[in-house]
Amino acid sequence: MENYGFRYIHVGYSHHLAPHRNQLERRQDGVLMRLQVKGTCRVDLGGNPHYIYPGDLVISKPQGTYQLFIGEESGMDGQNLVDSTDYYVVCGGGWVDRWLASQTLPDVAHIEVNEDLLSLWRRLIYEKRNVHENNEEITACCAKLLCLTLERSIANALSAGGRKEHYIASRLKGYIEKHATEPLTLDELAARNSVSASTASHVFKEAFGLPPMRYAVEVRLAIASDRIRYSDMRLEDAAEASGFRSYPYFCRAFRAKYGQSPSEYRMQYRQDIQEL
Predict the structure, then answer these.
(1) C-alpha distances in angstroms, 50 versus 15, 39, 66?
(2) For residues 6 and 91, what is the distance between their CA atoms, to the nearest angstrom?
(3) Nearest-CA neighbor of 186 among 215, 156, 220?
(4) Where are the beta strands (DSSP E) in 211-269?
(5) CA-to-CA distance for 41 and 116, rounded, in angstroms?
(6) CA 36, CA 41: separation in Å to the nearest integer?
């Protein structure tokens, strides 16, 4: 696995229904990241206590100490009160060293926990357990994707500064990106994210500089441009598959974005490829 930037990867999922304590002297390299998804606990990093709640990501850096205490609120006796769930990953290697050196990660960050993030974690767990196939490269790619996704989640959380408005805007943005090719209205977007249409429009424009439905058009245009360049789909079909229900509107929006009609854009791309 060293060839893929990792010396080791240890990843898993824990569910504690009884009090639990763990003390770890950190390795000289690598990072430990633990995401609380249910219940509470206490983590001491370098002797500094942190009370951890769902959504808190704990980051233990090299050469530090890490202590985990679960069930303290029950006095270590009332086992029926303990219900703590977390995902964790410990990894080190050349890629991890470069990644850690490129930024300053906090000891604890409160991030959004969603199915996309947890599915990445579960996929990495599965690949590590799949010992009968030569999957080291896949495992390394999954680990890199998880680390970079956590980095983005931390950056989003820090830029929000605890503001509810930025959290709502980020949630709206993610929904648009997932559902851009489907019929989508501002009222539906707002309802799906439990806010009013006016709130959705206001907070999104404040955060990203353009209205949410305009952003949906931008995403659809990016999808359409890829289909036009890399497939032989009819232009009308490419437009429809990218979420546009009106081909004339698509052509106008495409020309405004790229300075060419869809057919000119495809022709120019193919000429450029032939000249390479």
Answers:
(1) 20, 14, 11
(2) 7
(3) 215
(4) none
(5) 24
(6) 8
The answer to whether the beta carbons of residues 170 and 156 sit under 8 Å apart is yes
d(CA 77, CA 99): 41
Q: 177, 219 in Cβ contact below 8 A?
A: yes
pLDDT tens track, the chain, 276 positions: 777 899 999 999 999 988 888 876 666 778 999 999 999 999 999 888 999 999 999 999 887 789 999 987 554 444 457 899 999 999 999 999 999 999 889 999 988 898 999 999 999 999 999 877 788 999 999 999 999 999 999 988 877 555 667 778 888 998 999 999 999 999 999 999 889 999 999 999 988 899 999 999 999 999 999 999 999 999 999 999 999 999 999 999 999 999 999 999 999 999 888 876
Residue 247 burial by Cβ neighbours in a 10 Å radius (0-12, 13-18, 19+): middle
pTM for the full model? 0.77
Q: How far apart are CA 175 and CA 212, in angstroms?
A: 10
Q: How far apart are the C-alpha atoms of 108 and 51, rounded to whole Å? A: 10
Number of H helices, E strands in the chain: 10, 9
**Paired strand residues for 65:** 25
CA-CA distance, 88 to 207, in Å (whole number)? 31
